[in-house]
Design brief:
By secondary structure, the chain is of the alpha+beta class. The protein has helices at about 5-15, 20-30, 35-40, 45-60, 65-75, 80-90, 135-150, 175-180, 345-355, 360, and strands at about 100-105, 110, 150-155, 160-170, 170-175, 185-190, 195, 200, 205-220, 240-245, 270-275, 285, 290-295, 300-305, 315, 325-330, 340-345.
């Protein structure tokens, strides 16, 4: 139930006995990535008024329970706080979200320091909200939570080979070059492989491929296997994708629906990549000035968002979580790389439909 003004006033009274202004500054910065006075409330108010205004703003954004849970974690011996929360906000007595997708915030490919490394941290207003004119931040986080269950690590003989993601209840999309030289009978998709808050890893669950695993595929451009990937540019059919069938449907996870129109990605647009870099637990790379531009025939889009080996096959999103690209390639100039590169998903969708595999996408 939403907090009303009377409940907020009661909570403010209790919290003012437990936290100082300095405590609140540290708590909001570490819990949300945004400064108390920079993003949440005006400076210069009394402590109790600051708490009242802060809780009102958190409630408006759907984040009050998360932050109150963090406050309760920091004052675990306060019976007064537990009693107040039991009446006004019982969900705050539950443990705050733990672990999940790591976060790598970037601007034009350069990592941004001093922000939370947890992608489920409720703030990041400076980096996220300017690009979410149509979405509330809570909706943005809920969408990320759903995508977390739809991205997987591609394993060959239990060794990490790349990243993939569900595009149907029993269909996973990845790069052809991730599986081209593999024995697909030894391949599997591992979902929910994430880092816990205590630094340990959640093993997740492995799903085998079907007996006839490869539904369709397209190769990369031959030039992309050389030091001169643009000479010549990729042809229309050189999309570097593989559509894999799973041995069993996992539609309860949901899946990403491939777009049927070209992406609108002007230079400087932000991009998000959910990936298993170097086979590691799932990570979100977020770059607020990412897009470099498309090539001449629209078969590739280049961007600055950082990736690593193992990121091939990752879904690339706009800041509103619209899937737009299949990440597949990095600049071969390893000493001073200039770009990463993806394949437009609308072209891959058209190729899958042309191959007669619409039922795999429809569920």
């Amino acid at each position: 139930m939403p907090l009303d003004a009377r409940q907020i006033e009661s909570l403010s009274a209790v919290l003012s006995r437990l936290f100082t202004h300095s405590d609140l500054e540290r708590l909001m910065l570490t819990a949300t990535g945004d400064g108390l006075y920079e993003a949440w409330v005006p400076a210069g108010m009394t402590l109790r008024r600051t708490l009242f205004e802060l809780l009102q703003e958190l409630e408006r954004q759907g984040l009050a329970a998360r932050v109150l849970a963090e406050m309760r974690e920091r004052r675990p011996l306060s019976a007064d706080l537990r009693a107040a929360l039991a009446t006004a906000c019982p969900e705050a007595l539950e443990a705050p979200p733990q672990g999940g997708i790591g976060l790598a915030p970037q601007v034009a490919g350069v990592p941004v320091r001093g922000l939370p490394d947890d992608a489920f941290a409720p703030g990041l207003q400076k980096n996220v909200r300017p690009h979410l004119a149509k979405l509330d931040l809570a909706i943005w986080i809920d969408r990320l939570a759903a995508i977390r269950r739809q991205v997987c690590r591609i394993e060959i003989g239990r060794r990490a080979a790349g990243t993939g993601f569900l595009i149907g209840p029993a269909a996973v999309l990845t790069n052809w070059h991730v599986v081209a030289k593999a024995a697909l009978a030894e391949a599997q998709c591992r979902f929910d492989y994430v880092m816990r808050a205590d630094g340990t890893r959640e093993a997740g669950s492995a799903v085998a491929l079907a007996a006839d695993p490869l539904a369709c595929h397209a190769p990369p451009a031959p030039a992309e296997m050389t030091e001169h990937p643009e000479d010549p540019p990729p042809a229309a059919g050189e999309l570097d994708f593989a559509l894999l069938r799973l041995a069993e449907p996992v539609g309860e996870r949901g899946w990403l629906r491939l777009p049927d129109a070209p992406p609108d990605l002007p230079p400087g647009s932000p991009l998000l990549i959910v990936q298993h870099p170097d086979g590691a637990p799932m990570k979100l790379a977020m770059d607020t000035q990412s897009v470099i531009g498309a090539n001449a025939n629209g078969t590739r889009v280049r961007y600055r968002t950082n990736t690593e080996n193992g990121s091939s096959g990752s879904p690339v999103f706009t800041m509103d979580w619209d899937p737009v690209l299949l990440h597949h390639y990095g600049d071969p100039a390893w000493g001073a790389p200039r770009f990463n590169q993806g394949v437009p998903l609308d072209r891959i969708r058209a190729a899958i439909l042309a191959a007669g595999h619409a039922p795999l996408l429809e569920g």
